[in-house]
Each structure stands twice: as structure tokens, then as C-alpha cells.
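User: Can you predict the 3D structure of TolB family protein? Sequence below.
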Amino acid sequence: MTKFTPKNWLQRPFYWSFIYSLTSLLVSCDSGVIPFASNSLNSRYTEEQPTLSGNGRFLAFVSNRNGVHQLLVYDLQQQQFIPTPRLNRADTIAESPSLSYTGRYIAYITSDQGRPVVALYDRATQQSQILTPIYRGWLRNPHLSPDGRYVVFETASRGQWDIEVLDRGPNIELDIPNGATVPAP
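Assistant: Sure. Here are the predicted C-alpha cells for TolB family protein:
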């Protein structure tokens, strides 16, 4: 028969609680990297400035996943991220996204030589272009018309916040739903 002593009785719970605490600590101290290939919309990182496409299918937002500030596009129907090659560059920050009707065009604020500019990314051609190279003041909050022809934004070029409307012209390829009629310019 084994002799029961208070010393052994106290040592077992401490031993197991120590093992449990150590295991919990090790599990919670992972690298925190969530792979970009993950199809999860929400993460444990800061995600802000959401915007929906006109048809409600695409969501664009600014995220800090993997420690990188980036503009992401998520397909709500397919529940996966959409690749946007050449949109997020290492030397710039993209902010304040706005989507056209089907999400083909993305207007956003970025920097060019240290000053903010409005840029437009075309998902069909996978190219970005700066729309406001000549504005000297601060710019913020760009928004696209559903067809992608007009971009409105705020500018402080006169010492106060004013609204500017930029017409991309009648010769651009509009972002309209299939089968929709286009009014004459």
C-alpha cells in the first residue's frame, strides 16, 4: 500500500498546471503570419476603409496583413481575394479605395515624390496611372462614378477643402454591366 503524503498531492497539480501554462504560452506565441492565400476576409490585423463595388460583389479595403500596408480586393461571391499585380508597391502607401460598378477600376490615394496623388488601377490591364499629377495641394477621399468615367475627390489647393470632379474623357472603356445601354456622350 502506498503512503499518501500531502507533498505528492500538491506536486501533481502544480506539475500539470505548469505544463498546461507552458504549452498555452508556446501556442499563443506563433509568428502571427497569416498567409495571403487564406480566403478568410477578417484577420487579426488592422483592416479599414472598406468600399463596395456598385454591384455589391467586390470589397476593397486597406489592410496591414503580414506587417505590410496594402490595398486588397475581396470577391464576396467567390469568397476569395482577387490578385492585383502592380497595385501595391513597396515604396508607396495606398489609401481610401473606391470601386467602379463591377470593380474593374479602383481609385485610391497614393504618393508620388512624397505628395499625395489620386491614382486609378485597372484590373483588366493590371496597370495604375496617376490622375492628378499637377495638383499642388493635399488630396483625399477619391470616389469613382459607377461607370468609372468620373473621379471626385477633395483638394486643399486653395487653403480649404474643396471638391474637384475629374472627367477621364468619353473615350475610356466604361465599367458597365453586360447588356446595359450606354447613353450617347
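The two ends are 99 Å apart (CA to CA). Residues 6-28 form the longest helix (23 residues).
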